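Most newcomers find our protein records easier to grasp once they have seen one. To make this concrete, we reproduce a full record directly below:

===
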Amino acid sequence: MTSLSPQPSLSRIRIGSAPDSWGVWFPDDPQQVPWQRFLDEVAQSGYEWIELGPYGYLPTDPTVLTEETSRRGLKVSAGTVFTGLHHGESVWEKTWAHVADNAVLAQAMGAEHLVVIPSFWRDDKTGAVLEPDTLTPEQWRDLASLTERLGQRVREEYGLRIVVHPHADTHIDSEENVVRFLDATDSDLVSLCLDTGHYAYCGGDSVKLIETYGSRIGYLHLKQVDPEILADVRAKGTPFGPAVAQGVMCEPPKGVPELGPVLSAAQKLGVELFAIVEQDMYPCEPDAPLPIAMRTRAFLRSCGA
């Protein structure tokens, strides 16, 4: 358990939150809160930075979105895209079309990053197995080379940096696979979005990764897992979506990893970093996110952030 006693200021860490912390996983879903409520409540919670979330959830007209965010004192740190680049050249054009839509909006909103999430090997909503959970050597080569191409093109055309997000039920998940991916890609083109919850879910140590691969850490997602629920999820082989519904991702500081040491390690890197709170809660009751968000923001302030 992390102490709530005040900690030294984390001056290089820019704290924010995301639609994910309001139970938003899809552009449109009857179980999700309206986007206006998300914006109202994230501002009420004391955050000034947000991510765009799934493309189409927030308004995609930059003029409208700028007006809506500005009057609430909010700014955008990143957009998010989903990719399946291990499938090779056959998916490139479709992937780029999806990326370009997101990048146009992110750029227009003044964002600096594009969070890239690998495609799931089993469906995040139903748990249906879509493909093998391990990649062939050829698929690893395609994943690395096409991610580098994506990083270069996004930078050249939109001025954004991609940050690849290791994620449960994808092929970039465990320490072994994250390190393999980092070692296979150009550090100038590909950085990492370290999600502390997903990395712990898959057995990784966030502080160790920051200390070992600090120059590759370009962005943070702050999240914790409940160790008891995680043990049950692992024992039963529960897919990620149902595991989230079970409460595997929990409100800090009730889970692991301790976020204070993670933030301290990130501060020591000596670079400006976004640290965006993402507590997976899909689905959740509409009134649940706001009080959690307010408590989480207060907790992070006690850590110095």
Observations:
- The mean pLDDT is 96.
- The chain has one domain: 13-302.
